[in-house]
Amino acid sequence: MARAAGPERRLLAIYTGGTIGMRSERGVLVPGKGLAAVLRTLPMFHDEGHAQACGLPEDTLVLPPACPEQRVMYTVLECQPLFDSSDMTITEWVQIAQTIERHYGQYHGFVVIHGTDTMAFAASVLSFMLENLQKTVILTGAQVPIHALWNDGRENLLGALLLAGQYVIPEVCLFFQNQLFRGNRVTKVDTRRFAAFCSPNLPPLATVGADVTINRELVRKVRGQGRLVVHGGMERDVGLLRLYPGIPATLVRVFLQPPLKGVVLETFGSGNGPTKPDLLQELREAAERGLVIVNCTHCLQGAVTSDYGAGTALAGAGTISGSDMTSEAALAKLSYVLGLPGLSLDGRKELLARDLRGEMTLPATDELRPSLRDSTLGRGVAQLLSLSQEAEDVRDALVPSLACAAAHAGDLEALQVLAELGSDLSLEDFGGQTPLHSAARGGQAGVVTMLLQRGLDVNARDRDGLSPLLLAVRGRHQGVIGLLRAAGACLSPQELEDSGTELCRLASRADCEGLRAWWQAGADLRQPGYDGRSALHVAEAAGNLEVVALLQSLQGGVGDQALGPVSPPPPCGVGPGGDCVLGTEPV
Ligand SMILES: NC(=O)C[C@H](N)C(=O)O
User: Fold this and answer.
1) Which positions does the entry assign to ANK repeats (predicted)?
2) How far does the centroid of ligand 1 lie from the alpha carbon of residue 292, in Å?
3) 221-247 per-position pLDDT tens digit
4) Which comes out higher in pLDDT, residue 501 or 391?
5) Residue 82, CA distances (Å) to 31, 50, 115 in order
6) Contacts for 90-95 with beta carbons within 8 Å, 24 or more apart?
7) Is 116 a catalytic residue?
8) pLDDT, tens digit, 9 for 90 and up, residues 482-519
């Protein structure tokens, strides 16, 4: 965490609705449009003289100077429609995350103006969706509309803008009543008081009084240079069930039915529940058919422990400890972990038990999980996880090699754990290969898909100048070649030039699969070899009619039906389309 440098700090404020901008209609509060226009009239939110002197664009507001050399400028994106946050769902939160992603390069930080009723859910979900966050994201709102004489909206919004503008706190945070909390640690505790939120198991990251006090030890560190990854594939079939004394097993049974894939069980005290055999049996059966059950206490403060038989009975029925997570964070984490592609059930449970975004406090001796102990690679990753803070340098040095080994072996779980550690999956190992090279060489389509989704360079060259595409061609991995081509991979001029000799060699061995792989990668099958002859010449001379026919059909542009169509690579530099979210427009 650092105080932000530079004379101008640009922020994007995404206005989704909530009481802060609400107006009374027929006696009830409903979301109100035009927040930016209101802010423009309030001197604490806009310095019109400075804006005119600098010729700022119409949609840009500028705060009065907080310190002499720095100005915080901001643009308000107003969503359409605006929501009472009671109507917000994962769909809207995914759109907010994607808006941040689209504008990530343009702004130094982000403020999300949101209703308070579901703000703790929103902050939790966003914290998991935004991986490798290197900029400040702050959610805020109000208990009383900003137009009212006595309101908390002005202070909250101003504080959020100033903190996001002046500090780099690379987390999803929530600012309310002079306190900046980690977003996935909060819960709403009051319907009326301005101190609406509390963070029961983690002190605030910052407090604002006459001075701003940042709790530096708590702020998460940026690790690696990995780019922002937005996980939009959150699982929606997750639920929350609060136990109460005497809850019937039949009711629990109904609740746990498919399509539910994961549930947060709110239990008593330190994670205890009724020990009635029929209830435990329902939980056990659900867990055995693959439902993931996370045990969170319904107490405001404290964690799930194994102190009581009534708690260990739940663990015995297959529930996973949620430690001191809030229910909001646990639900968001379930949705995130169950939405990750390509993981086994054990791998998902492994991630759920880990602290991924600072959402849970792990016991001091964090035991290595059995699923990670199973393989040599898993052991390596598990050891890395257990290294102390001081050994981070060693860890950083080992990560590229481990990532390459995991990629080659198709071990998505190990890669996911490395990513969760903040490891940069684009780094080269000692041989100069990236994990994408290794996955391509190993024919690991699942890993290639994951790495491409993370935006890794599809045309990275290893120390010998080889591309992932060439390694996939050599391995004849058609699925991987297709994925790489669709992501814009091309053989380099050198690889294309060298292909002639290789094609002749394949033709002489009647290796049709090898020839098809080159064709699929975009090679010109007429490319001459070192002696000037093409693969077709070689096949004809050898009298191999099958190869001759294949080469003629491929060279003639008639794709082999058995191979399936090869989609042309998209033009380079095409980013995610559209600039609107929830119908959002700058105002
Ligand atoms: N204070 C608030 O913002 C409450 C409002 N119902 C909302 O969540 O949108």
Assistant:
1) 431-463, 531-551
2) 31
3) 886 667 899 999 999 999 999 999 999
4) 501
5) 6, 30, 10
6) 90/125, 90/234, 90/236, 90/335, 92/16, 92/582, 93/122, 93/125, 93/126, 93/129, 94/129, 94/232, 94/234, 95/581, 95/582
7) yes
8) 999 999 999 988 899 899 999 999 999 999 999 999 99
Q: Is residue 568 part of a domain?
A: no
Check the annotation: does 116 bind a ligand: yes
The answer on 103 and 165 residing in a single domain is: yes
Residues 196 and 248 in one domain: no
Same-domain pairing of 196 and 280:
no
Of the candidates 198, 236, 222, 203, the residue with the CA atom closest to the CA atom of residue 130: 222
d(CA 196, ligand 1 centre) in Å: 11
Q: Which of 19, 75, 116, 136 is catalytic?
A: 116
Residue to mutate, 15, 22, 114, 192, ligand 1, most ligand atoms under 8 Å from C-beta: 22
Q: What is the pLDDT of residue 578?
A: 31
| 14 and 149 part of one domain | yes
Quick check: is 297 in a domain? yes
Please state the pTM of the whole predicted model. 0.74
Could you give the CA distance from residue 356 to residue 102 in angstroms, rounded to a whole number? 24
Pocket of ligand 1 (CB under 6 A): 17-19, 84-86, 115-117, 141, 143
> DSSP secondary-structure letter at 390?
G
The angle formed by the CA atoms of residues 180, 186 and 192, to the nearest 5 degrees, is: 90
- Could you tell me if residue 477 is inside a domain? yes
Instruction: HSE, CB side, 13 Å, CA atoms: give it for residue 474.
Output: 16
ipTM of the complex: 0.99
Nearest CA to ligand 1 atom 3: 115
Residue 584 counted as domain residue? no
Nearest atom (ligand 1) to Cα of 20: 3
> For residue range 425-483, what is the model confidence (pLDDT) as tens digits?
888 888 788 999 999 999 999 999 999 988 888 999 988 889 999 999 999 999 999 99
Residues 218 and 292 in one domain: no
Testing ligand 1's pocket by substitution, the residue of 23, 86, 174, 188 carrying the most ligand atoms inside 8 A of its CB is 86
Are 547 and 507 a contacting pair, CB within 8 Å? yes
User: Does 553 show up as a binding residue in the annotation?
Assistant: no
- Residue 579 CA to ligand 1 center (angstroms) comes to 27
Do 472 and 519 share a domain, yes or no? Answer: no
What is the domain extent for residue 298? 238-364
Can you tell me the distance from the alpha carbon of 335 to that of 236, in angstroms, rounded to the nearest whole number? 6
Residue nearest to atom 7 of ligand 1 (CA): 115
In CATH, what number is assigned to the domain containing residue 537? 1.25.40.20
- pLDDT for 379 equals 58
Same-domain pairing of 461 and 532:
no
Domains in the chain, number? 4
Q: How far does the centroid of ligand 1 lie from the alpha carbon of residue 145, in Å?
A: 10
Same domain for 45 and 159, yes or no, is: yes
